[in-house]
Design brief:
Helix content: 40-55%
CATH class: Alpha Beta
Order of helices and strands: HHHEHEHEHEHEHH
Oligomer: single chain
Strand content: 15-25%
CATH topology: Rossmann fold
Number of strands: 5
Distance between the termini: 33 Å
């Protein structure tokens, strides 16, 4: 794995659990993702940057047709926590910049999503290309947007970028995604 200076294992074990489950921002992002997913037909789901699996648990509860799930995270602690909480599926600690997810999982997923992850990744284009390779039908990418990144953000939360308007769309299209819907706020 590429060495990332931020300690994601400690963050998931000690700081982010309740915030990602109950925090107003995280709840709002999950509501938006559910709205996007509600009209789609899918039976397999991959959570890219699974955290503690909150979104995956909600999808399994709402969509009984899901018959295969998976998750990846840079943090081994996160992958282990999610695997335990979800109780089914395949979960790995992977580096999205370098690891071939399709090689690990063996087949593509109908729905992949990555919420609040790509802003943490130095080589986001490589990560997006890997997500595209393992996606069979639909992908949802949720991230922060802004004109500048405060200097403290890398150390405190591990962010390496804010996306400017249109930047993420251009990067996703460059690796083969066709953009259907964009929500900005």
């Amino acid at each position: 794995m590429t060495k990332i200076p931020y300690d994601y294992d400690s963050a998931w074990e000690q700081r982010w659990d309740d915030m990602k489950k109950y925090g107003p921002y995280s709840r709002h992002v999950r509501r938006l993702a559910h709205r996007l997913v509600s009209g789609l037909t899918f039976s397999s789901v991959l959570d890219v940057g699974c955290g503690q699996g909150e979104m995956l648990l909600e999808l399994l509860e709402r969509y009984p047709q899901i018959n295969r799930v998976g998750g990846i995270d840079y943090s081994q602690s996160s992958a282990d926590i999610t695997a335990h909480r979800v109780g089914q599926g395949t979960f790995f600690a992977l580096d999205l910049q370098t690891d071939d997810m399709l090689e690990r999982f063996g087949e593509k997923f109908d729905l992949t999503y990555s919420l609040d992850v790509v802003e943490h990744i130095e080589n986001d284009v490589a990560a997006l290309a890997n997500i595209h390779r393992i996606t069979n039908q639909y992908t949802i990418i949720g991230t922060i947007q802004g004109n500048s990144l405060p200097s403290w953000e890398k150390e405190v939360v591990g962010h390496v970028r804010n996306y400017r308007r249109g930047e993420l769309i251009a990067k996703m299209e460059s690796v083969g995604f066709e953009i259907d819907t964009v929500i900005e706020w």
